[in-house]
């Protein structure tokens, strides 16, 4: 006795082979079901505004600025192709460019580590279950909401002026102050202090990371007699390295793009003696004050490549000091 095939039914013969029409109908049904699962063209309709913004406000302006970087363009007459002249001029015949590079690198190297260190320290102080702790967290975050405003930069210029509050504070200790904004040796560091004062954003990110650290590890370390400093360097900091890396990348990018404080505090001049001539300020001056838009576009692309290079280096170096769960 032989076994019937799976497509046979008791008392019936084998199923009739599918005709080409049946196969085409099944294929249409399969495609129709796939379209229903994928949503058809509706997702693309809802994404259309984003695509318009991406291509119209990001990709096209970037490509246009790349073209302009190889031209002589003053916003009033048609662009004239000059090849790599803007780039060669930048690196060989423009001393102010190197002043802006020096000021920007010094600003980034000094402000970013201080800002992250202060943000982490305050986050650890606020990582406690105390009454009214939410109010304190909001108060420490407030400078980050106000720090980028023109009004705060104006206030900062008044605070560190010759008759400002900072000199009044020094006078209580018998120390004679100076006009910190007008001194080329100290003007840039007033911008650094303003940047460090805006530590709220990395602080909130650090605080979120601290909330996720396992408490049993700290309990075991406390039982073993580990001191708070030891627990910080052996437990907290290694577990927070992904958060430190994230904040480091974001803050370096933001520091390179700093514009408003330098513009307001120096009255748009980058003085004294180009000590506050940050790169973004110099780019703005060449493009909208001197009407050298082609040269400004070249400056913008150099800044883009520098930021991309710093970010790439951070990602490569992160494999040696950033520790993940796995």
UniProtKB/TrEMBL annotation:
It is found in: Cell membrane. GO terms for cellular component: plasma membrane. SUPFAM superfamilies: MalF N-terminal region-like (SSF160964), MetI-like (SSF161098). Residues 101-314 form the ABC transmembrane type-1 domain. Coiled coil: none annotated. The chain crosses the membrane at residues 41-63, 105-126, 138-156, 187-210, 231-253, 259-284, 296-317. Residues 1-30 are annotated as: Disordered. It comes from the Bacteria. Keywords: Cell membrane, Membrane, Transmembrane, Transmembrane helix, Transport. It is a multi-pass membrane protein. GO terms for biological process: transmembrane transport. Belongs to the binding-protein-dependent transport system permease family. This is ABC transporter permease. It comes from Streptomyces cellostaticus. The lineage of its organism: Bacteria, Bacillati, Actinomycetota, Actinomycetes, Kitasatosporales.
């Amino acid at each position: 006795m032989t076994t019937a095939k799976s497509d046979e039914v008791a008392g019936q013969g084998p199923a009739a082979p599918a005709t080409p029409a049946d196969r085409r109908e099944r294929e249409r049904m399969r495609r129709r079901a796939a379209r229903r699962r994928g949503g058809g063209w509706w997702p693309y309709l809802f994404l259309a505004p984003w695509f318009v913004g991406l291509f119209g406000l990001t990709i096209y302006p970037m490509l246009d600025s790349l073209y302009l970087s190889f031209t002589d363009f003053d916003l009033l007459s048609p662009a004239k192709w000059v090849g790599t002249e803007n780039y060669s001029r930048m690196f060989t015949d423009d001393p102010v460019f190197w002043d802006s590079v020096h000021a920007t690198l010094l600003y980034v190297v000094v402000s970013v580590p201080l800002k992250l260190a202060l943000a982490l320290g305050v986050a650890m102080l606020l990582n406690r279950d105390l009454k009214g702790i939410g109010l304190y967290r909001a108060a420490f975050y407030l400078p980050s909401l106000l720090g980028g405003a023109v009004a705060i930069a104006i206030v900062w210029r008044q605070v560190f002026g010759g008759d400002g509050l900072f000199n009044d504070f020094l006078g209580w200790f018998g120390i004679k102050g100076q006009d910190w904004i007008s001194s080329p040796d100290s003007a840039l560091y007033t911008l650094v202090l303003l940047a460090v004062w805006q530590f709220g954003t990395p602080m909130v990110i650090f605080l979120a990371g601290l909330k996720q650290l396992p408490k049993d590890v700290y309990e075991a370390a406390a039982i073993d007699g580990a001191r708070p400093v030891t627990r910080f360097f052996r437990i907290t900091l290694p577990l927070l390295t992904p958060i430190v890396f994230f904040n480091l990348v974001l803050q370096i990018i933001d520091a390179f793009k700093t514009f408003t404080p330098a513009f307001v505090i120096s009255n748009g001049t980058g003085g004294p003696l180009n000590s506050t001539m940050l790169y973004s300020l110099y780019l703005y001056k060449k493009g909208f004050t001197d009407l050298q838009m082609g040269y400004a576009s070249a400056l913008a692309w150099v800044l883009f490549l520098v930021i991309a290079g710093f970010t790439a280096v951070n990602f490569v170096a992160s494999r040696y000091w950033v520790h993940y769960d796995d």
